[in-house]
Amino acid sequence: MTWKKTIDNLFAMQQFAIRVAQYADKGFTVCLSGELGAGKTTFTQFFGAAIGIDEPINSPTFTIMKLYDDSNLPLVHIDAYRLEGVHEEPSLEDYIFGPYVCVIEWYEHIKGSLPDNYLAIDFMRISETSRELIIKGSGRYETIAKALSH
Amino acid sequence: MIVLAIESSCDETSVSINKDGTTILSNVVLSQIALHAKYGGVVPEIASREHVKGITAVFEESFEKAHIAPEDVDLVAVTEGPGLIGSLLIGINAAKAFALARNIPIIGVHHIAGHVYANAIEAPLEFPLICLVVSGGHTELLKMKSHYHFEKLGETKDDAIGEAYDKIARVLGIGYPGGPAIDERAQAYKKSDRYPMPRVSTDNPYDFSYSGLKSHVINMLNRMRMKGEPLDVDKMCASFQEAAVEHLIQKSLDAVKAVNAKMFLVAGGVAANSLLRARVQETFDFVKVAMPPFEYCTDNAAMIGVAGYYKYITHQKVDTLDMNGRSRLAIE
After folding, report:
1. What's the CATH class of domain A2-148?
2. Which of A104, A133, B15, B111 has a 20 to 30 A CA-CA distance from A46?
């Protein structure tokens, strides 16, 4: 089952990220997809700030993974953009399955290294400023996905 | 003093030996670029395995070329971060093994400090200085008041410049890595008209932002495609490159003036960009300017050895065998 939510501007994106952050605990996994410039890193910046990361969060495309472990709820920010065609990436699994909140951009590139259950958000571009989010969740994430669509 | 240096933070396995910092006796670099090219980037698991395969041979070659015996080495310098964890650990473990076997000190070096010190190989640094660091993973302005004292004035709030180049090259379908591809196209475009580009602004005067410029180009391409307008790829490359480089020049100029710098340095892989080099020469004619020679622009252990030497003589402090690799690491 998938749900949809329309985001009209940057402020609405921030509000949405704050709502997702309310569910975050160690082991919480959010997977993001959408074309370049769709808003995945912007969402992650708002989400990270909302779970208490006070350092600047910038793109992890180059190092694939950045770990923010100075706060109570540490964040792992993964960007699998460059891992197209890899499918599995064992060196990331210690982080994906570790005691962190985990955000994975371009998760479709590393499907073989994901947990069974996670929250998935697909960012669809409607116009230059608005996005439609397709929200999915399995296991405990199903009720979260549904709640987030309202 | 003989320093052995190791760099393995991404896709280059490199070992270098220097004498008293800036006399480079050897600098052997084994690159995996061809191996990763089909993925359009570096695959961490493959990178880490290749480092393991290559590091012993790179060590041996570096000693041979330097005409130095292992027992002549006084200090081991190694890249501690930032970088790919699995890759960093191969270099760090090799460094620890060597230091333990020879019973000599080990010192962890920040990868970006290495890029900064690549500039010290040809001419001495003069302080205070401003360094613009531009690469696939970094875009930042550093101030140094003396050897191995760094202050980060600002950095990118989103994408690094090299990453913006790669992503725009991908959207334009002109290949990887994007830096040389866009630079070449932009140079081929001789006309003076440009596609409109936004002026980028950030809260902190020394911060950078490239995600807005990236989105602007993507939006413009979508609009042109929908309207069926023809796209001049060379013109787009020239327009983007000009906006991207001007953003660097403006912020750097402000910083150089604000701290009354004696020297301005450019470090990192994007220092190879032709427009950036030309604009730096034109703009900073009132201070000393240094840009690393091309062979030291990309990752190499020589720069880590130079930085390690200055860190050691400045701070007289070494690391222990507990040292670990870090994906993120503060330079200050």
Report:
1. alpha beta
2. B111
Do B183 and B251 belong to one domain?
yes
Is position B183 within any domain? yes
What pLDDT, on the 0 to 100 scale, is given for residue B295?
83
Local structure of B154: helix, strand or coil: strand
Dump pLDDT digits (tens) for A41-77. Answer: 999 999 999 999 998 899 888 888 999 988 899 999 9
Chain B residue with minimum CA distance to A66: B327
Q: What stretches of chain A show up as alpha helix (H) in DSSP?
A: 10-21, 40-50, 90-96, 141-148
Domain identity same for B150 and B275: yes
Which range marks the domain in which residue B250 is found? 125-291
What distance in Å separates the CA atoms of residue A99 and residue B105, rounded to the nearest whole number? 34
Flag if A56 and B155 touch (Cβ within 8 Å).
yes
pLDDT, one tens digit per residue, over B249-284 is 999 999 999 999 999 999 998 998 999 999 999 999
Q: How many structural domains is chain B composed of?
A: 2
Decide: residue B271, CB within 10 A, 0-12 exposed, 13-18 middle, 19+ buried. Answer: buried
- Reported as a pLDDT band with limits 50, 70 and 90, residue B40 is low
Closest Cα in chain A to B9? A63
Give the contacts of B238 (CB within 8 A, at least 6 positions apart): B185, B186, B189, B194
CATH number at residue B92: 3.30.420.40
3-state secondary structure of A83: helix
**Which of A134, A59, A11 is CA-nearest to residue B41?**
A59
Residue B190, domain member (yes or no):
yes
| pLDDT for the residue numbered A59 | 87
Closest chain B CA to residue A125: B219
Question: Do B277 and B191 belong together in one domain?
Answer: yes
Residue B201 lies in a domain: yes
Chosen for mutation from B139, B165, B211, B240 (greatest number of chain A CBs closer than 10 Å) is B211
State pTM to two decimals. 0.90
Q: Are residues B286 and B166 in the same domain?
A: yes
Please check whether residue B322 lies inside any domain of the structure.
no
Summarize pLDDT for A75-100 with one digit per residue, the tens: 999 999 989 888 989 889 999 999 99
- Beta carbons of A58 and B156 less than 8 Å apart: yes
Using the beta-carbon criterion (under 8 Å), do A63 and B159 form an inter-chain contact?
no
Q: What is the pLDDT of residue A26?
A: 96
Tell me whether residues B211 and A41 touch, CB distance under 8 A: yes
